[in-house]
Amino acid sequence: MQHKHYPLIIVLLLFLCTQKSYSQKNIVVRQVDKNTFARQQTGKEKVIPYLEQRSKKGVVNVYEFNTAALQDSIFFLNIFPGETIKAIKQKVVKRGENNFTWHGYIQGPDKSQGSIALVYLNGEISGNLNYKAGNYSINPMGKGVFSVYEIDFKRAPYIEDAPGMTDSHKKTDNAAAATPSSIAQASCNLRVLVAFTSIAESFIKDYLGYSSLTQFALQAIAESNQAYLNSGVGVYMELAASVRVNYTESGDDATDLNRFMGTSDGYMDQIHTYRDIYAADVNVLISNNSQYCGLATTVLADAGNAFCVVNYDCALGNYSFAHEIGHLQGCRHNPEVDNSISPFAYGHGYVYTPDGWRTIMAINFNGETRLQYFSNPNVTYNGVPMGTTTTHYNARVLNETTGTVNNFRTVSSSVTINSDGAVINDEASDAVATTEVVLQDGFQASDNSEFTARLINCVGPSIVADNTAVVNTDESNVADSRSALAVYPTVTRGPVYISTDNSNLKNTEILVSDNSGRIVAKSVNNAGKKSITMNLSHLPNGLYIIQVKQAGKSITRKVIVQK
């Protein structure tokens, strides 16, 4: 049998632009009559009535979308009566001309802050918008058209999470158990496999408006990545594969989760083959479970139990997708409902009652809006710190565990794919290797699927913004990465924290330089300290290199100042 070798596959697709006339190029939307639209759309009859039930004010609006505006670094949204808000690009992730994610932050006329994450796939738009402590879902309604509504957290259809996280689902494989590590050890992006039950697929398409499971998976990942960007977390998540499973839900979350994780129990066992072929670190089952919004195996997983189940109706907007993966990365709920200090005393979500908001890992008390942030005392929302250093600091946990979690499945030099890795209708997969991807006879990718193959060099920290680049250094002259030197956050408004676990910073010189190599800040004489704080708020927005020199060796990190 002759094998076909494809060292690199590039998927080229046509970019679809709405051929409508807009009064201004970068005005993105124009409202249409939703009742007229609903009558004209086959298969969307249930969507608007269902979304109206979920809406905070019972209001759902439908808009045409000017896709040409997404080619600009700034566009404007006119979805609020009497108000136009500005969306400013943070990052665009292109998977093909017709498949990309647009990340940005929002600036209102009164300087109110917010963020937006949009996924464009084959002409359809989905997204999520946070603005003025409101959380808005953007659901696809066909090519070039979407609906917008404000999520009502007091109408949450399910209990958000299991009452307590335990190790009852503990399972290990040959990989080492997870241990805290510095952001320096992150070797690749966090790769996620997303699996769908048949009943979840039906509800997603019939009631949420999605015509593509892949778009739903990409939107869940986009919302997670926007939360990382907002929170100063040096993690970037990407889709390894989205697949269907031939499984009838049991009606019990724990049972479904155990069966999803089991390797040879006769339930969904093919998932583990897909996981290995497509190098997925973390695995998520999207279901119609009726007990909770989600359930993870444990807090701080290892390679063998990095599995969770998420209800389709909570995955987007409620951020249950990011929430359950957050448990696997070591994060806990807010201490009011979970006072455990294991594995990290500072690893809790945060609730700010006066303004009625909470961070992603915090559980709903009184209908507080869940903002697209992980707790971080160095990030503020309308002037209020979003955590505390001692108790509510999920961003630190994520930065410290990313090097372990992102390596639950490492990228091989060569990947061979046969019929076991086939991609059928409305599924997607992303094959990665460092040298070659081999497609054997028997492999197939149907016309309505998304398959890519890429050669990547997984060295250095995850990329968190367009202008962040991996710096290749001489390993013989780099301080031992096991020294757990941490530099965080990777995106900051000013404060940068530098710490080490097993020694102090005596005789250590810390230099900060801009892109031209000019030194713009330094710190010396740190004897007896295990951590220091450098304030970079006086520097212009941009990328900076932090070099830590000690005993003739050095470690280089990158941070972005964004005020």
From TrEMBL:
Superkingdom of origin organism: Bacteria
InterPro entries given in the database record: MetalloPept_cat_dom_sf, Secre_tail
Domain Secretion system C-terminal sorting: 487-561
Pfam families: Por_Secre_tail, Reprolysin_5
Record field: transmembrane: none
Descriptive protein name: Secretion system C-terminal sorting domain-containing protein
